[in-house]
Amino acid sequence: MPTPSPADAAAPDAAPVAAPDAAPDAAPARLPRRAPRPDLADVVLRGARTRVHAYGPQDAPTTLVALHGFRGDHHGLEPIVADLLAAADVRLLVPDLPGFGASAPLPDDRHDVAGYAAWAAELLDAVAPDEGQGDGQGDVVLLGHSFGSVVAAATAARRAVRGLVLVNPIAATALAGRPGAAAVTGAFHRLAGALPERPGTALLRLPVVTRLASVAMVRTRDRALRRWIHAEHDRRFAGFADRRTLLEAYAASSGSDVRPHAPAVTAPTLLVAAELDDLAPVAAQRALAGLFADARLVVVPGTGHLAHYETPDAVAAAVADFLRTLDGRAR
């Protein structure tokens, strides 16, 4: 399949470009392949211990740091990791965001976009220091999924990166087009914050809440894949450190998007959108692409906001193609 052309926000009627090697009609869907066992490292950033999971050869020509979304941890990106390692010569570093997975909460910063972006900039300096090239080009590719896309864009607006990849990017405030869902979700989190600490935290960890969110986001009709996705959410979505962290991150994820940060990003940028993503619709993605200095938009057919679970091979193919274009540029 030919290389996708750069998105043209001035041409809103342009047809979506399918991801390289995507097979939207393939059935039944295969379960995501397993990523290899990662190397583990703990890095102290902004006063907190961050767990970093490293995959792929240490001497790979490209280093890619990937940031997961709200309520997740590094496991959510492992399907993309597995397929990307098969498609490109790359070293992948996937941290658990502070307060989630095996990473401690930030002691002095809020778990909002500014706090996470300051943390992510320190992470890039720690694992892939900028070589101070005269053209201001960084030495690492930064990827973010969902809320991680907002953090990644905010980070790339302040710290040089070689390239920026946004998967299911939040192109407009999440749930902006679903006022009923936004009201219910907001009321639920306000109630969890108003209760005493223990019952409030227990409410946030209720398995039925996780299942309702998972059912609302899944788009695949493959029963085995649906069961796998629900099981992953059941295992991971309660893995936040405490109520404060979760509520701060929720406020940030529900009230922010990529748009304010896009004009300040100078690095080549790939947006990987999904045809059925009602949290980040394709029309909003086209408009978002036009805010970046140098962006291309790829739309993965037949999937929604869980493209990292439902079609990780298509996402990885788009990312690998983007990395090859970066290799063709002067470093």
What does this structure look like?
The protein has one domain: Rossmann fold (3-Layer(aba) Sandwich). Helix 1 crosses helix 11 (312-327), helix 2 (113-127) crosses helix 3 and helix 4 runs antiparallel to helix 5. It is globular. A hairpin with a 2-residue loop joins strand 1 and strand 2. Mean pLDDT is 88; it is low at 1-27 and 131-135. It is built from 11 helices and 8 strands. With 331 residues, it is an alpha/beta fold. Strands 1-2-4-3-5-6-7-8 form an 8-stranded mixed β-sheet, with helices on both faces.
Layout of strands and helices, then pairs:
Layout: E1 39-45, E2 48-55, E3 62-67, H1 78-87, E4 90-95, H2 113-127, E5 141-145, H3 147-156, E6 163-167, H4 179-194, H5 197-204, H6 207-217, H7 223-236, H8 243-255, E7 269-274, H9 282-289, E8 295-300, H10 307-310, H11 312-327
Parallel strand pairs: 3-4, 3-5, 5-6, 6-7, 7-8
Antiparallel strand pairs: 1-2, 2-4
